[in-house]
Write a structure and sequence with these properties.
It is a single chain. The chain is an all-alpha fold. It has two domains: about 1-40; about 45-280, MetI-like (MetI-like fold, Orthogonal Bundle), CATH 1.10.3720.10. It has helices at about 5-15, 20-40, 45-55, 55-90, 90-105, 110-120, 125-135, 145-170, 175-185, 190-200, 200-215, 220-225, 235-245, 245-270, 275-280. The longest helix has about 35 residues, at about 55-90. The radius of gyration is 24 Å and the shape is globular.
Length: about 280
């Protein structure tokens, strides 16, 4: 007869085993295959990685990707901080309204939002036509099919992802600490700068990491709103694999993109501490 300890062990093994199997079959094996393609296609060697280091076009795409992701992160986190700050000091009904608006953003398809921005930003779109009608401009502004359009669309998509971890961080700020600071003569600006901001830094770190990493892999929004003039790394990988059939280079760039994600995670962990970042996601 099996002992209770062995029975418990069997139950734990049965419950936990599917997770490592899923990780291996769903992530490790495909990643190993892509890594193998990067060294074997079109012929064995490291010529694909050498091309990444030498080709000016590839370096331009990588630096453009980093630039757009950084801009998207800074703007998204800044807007999310304002939203979370308003939520923190809102009435219960106001909090519910803000939470509803944030959640509704998740229900809208990325593709639908990108097409909506096209309708608003294109030369004959709502914004340009309104400005022309008001006489504020003489010719349509180039608001889309460039980096500006790509960043704007990505910010719209990423702000909700930045808001949620901030809400958790803002919720943990004790009102008694803020009241004590005010009672000791601190101005609202000092309370925000010296007390509130440091206490909410883990949420900001978590939000920044999420937005930057998600932005690195963005494809639909920059492809539609960038119009081929703000090609990012994910779109360039698609072009290499499915339009040029250059699977080796596509796989190499996919590995480069994965390395960028890992490096980003390590940098955020080094700067803010993995424990603080994870704490901002609770």
């Amino acid at each position: 007869m099996a002992s209770p300890t062995s029975e418990t062990l069997k139950i734990w093994v049965f419950l936990i085993l599917p997770l490592p199997v899923l990780v291996v079959l769903g992530y490790v094996v495909p990643t190993a295959g892509v890594l193998g393609w990067s060294f074997t296609l079109p012929e064995p060697g490291v010529q694909n990685y050498a091309a990444v280091l030498e080709a000016q076009r590839l370096q331009t795409v990588i630096w453009r990707t980093l630039r757009i992701c950084l801009l998207t992160t800074v703007i998204s986190v800044g807007l999310a901080y304002l939203i979370a700050y308003r939520w923190r000091f809102a009435t219960p009904r106001g909090r519910q309204l803000i939470e509803l608006v944030v959640l509704v953003s998740f229900w809208l398809s990325m593709l639908i939002r990108a097409f909506a921005w096209l309708v608003l930003l294109r030369g004959d779109g709502v914004i340009n036509q309104t400005l022309l009608w008001l006489g504020l401009i003489e010719a349509p502004l180039p608001l889309v099919r460039n980096e500006f359009g790509a960043v704007l669309g990505m910010v719209h998509f990423m702000v909700p992802f930045a808001v949620l971890p901030m809400l958790n961080s803002f919720r943990e700020v004790d009102d008694r600490v803020l009241n004590a600071a005010r009672s000791l003569g601190a101005t609202p600006g000092q309370v925000l700068r010296d007390i509130f901001f440091p206490l909410t830094l883990p949420g900001m770190a978590a939000a920044s990491g999420i937005v930057f990493i998600f932005s690195l892999g963005s494809f639909v929004t920059p492809a539609l709103l960038g119009g081929g003039r703000a090609v990012m790394l994910a779109e360039y990988i698609y072009l290499q694999m499915f339009q040029l059939s250059n699977w080796g280079m596509g796989a190499t760039l996919a590995i480069v993109l994965m390395a960028m994600v890992v490096v980003t995670a390590l940098i955020f962990g080094r700067l803010f501490g993995f424990k603080n970042i994870v704490g901002g996601l609770k």
